[in-house]
Amino acid sequence: MLTKFIETMRQRISRPLQYYADICVRCGACVEACHFYVASGNPAHIPAYRMMLVKKLLQQGGNGRGILDWYRETGRIDDQTVTEIRHALWECTGCRRCAVFCPFHLDTGLLVNTGRYALLQEGLGMEMTAEIGNAELSKGEIVDALKEFYVEQVRELEGRLREEWGVPDLRIPVDQAGARVLYVPVVGEHAIIPLAKIFHAAKENWTLSLFTATNHSYFVGDIPKAKQVAHWIVDEARRLGVQVIAYAECGHATRTLLQYFDHWFGEELAGIQRMSVVQLVAQYLAEGRIRVRPGTFTMPLTYHDPCNLGRNAGIYEEPRALIRAVATDFRELTPGRELNWCCGGGGGMIAEPDMLEVRIKAGRPKVEQIQRTGARVVVTACENCKTQLADLSERYGLGWEIKGAVDIVADALVM
Ligand code: SF4
Ligand code: SF4
Asked: Does residue 46 have its Cβ closer than 6 Å to ligand 2?
């Protein structure tokens, strides 16, 4: 057991991970930074301990056998190690809050990403997340066959919205060559409706992607697959000749778009700008391309910085600009921005039914900081955060209304 895990880790250990393994000085500055550890008290949730566990497994004796085998033979290690390594590598949202507190910025998120892939080879994985990743990969191969059905669904939605909003010239273009903006949604019409309204008001020349932004292979550290899934979208952008790729409110996907695409695709992206749709809508507002009714939201409202938009991609100001344009009682979280607590719903955990309880527990620091603001509405800009915050609200009996940053703009829009 764990032989494949050890082999895979050895093959994939990168220089930054080696650096982590070598220079962690056990100072403990990361311990209380992790919401999993704060909520559980389980040592396997301590960021530095996660690395220690992996390092222990990678250190082999001179006879070429794994230390785990040796431990097993001598009775010094048992299934507890396997349990610990699963807690350590699966129960992490990759939020990188620990890296901010670490004096060397050692990145447990990177360790977890690599370690998850290695555990999957062992059959000890987040199988559901990996399967969704495989489905996203397959979609690119059969997208032409799916296109007709998808376009039909979009036309039906377009007709319904024209009637509901009394806007007969509303359009939801799909696969439109020559569009300026390629909008890549997440699954579900809730990710299309507010943007259809905003793009119409901004008179944007846009088109809806045939794909979705989500990339579950990234969550399980399967980088070749994650890259291929993202490449379907780059291909689409080039085929249509767009100038901008805008991703829906989706944290991990936005992080890949802004931080991985250059490395993955290089010159293929020449002339194509990439941004979160939150940034794009903030641009419209700043340029006067859309108008909103100030004071549409008067109840206490707060903003949860999704880790992958805030801490991991530096998008702090744009969502706040949207909120200030439409709300009168905006209350910041403390600690906020770079030090904001993760909600506990990232890292692919939402897709795994078995992980519901652990994420509800890990969300406790988030619950407490939102409660301190007295907010009734919680705005955020990530699909996983929205699901997690809704689950937290329900399970802790809090009655919050959860809204996307673009949703509140759409609600306040002057058409
Ligand atoms: S990345 Fe986030 S969840 Fe993972 S160990 Fe660090 S603080 Fe904890
Ligand atoms: S803060 Fe950094 S150096 Fe200190 S124990 Fe944690 S990972 Fe190691």
From this structure: no
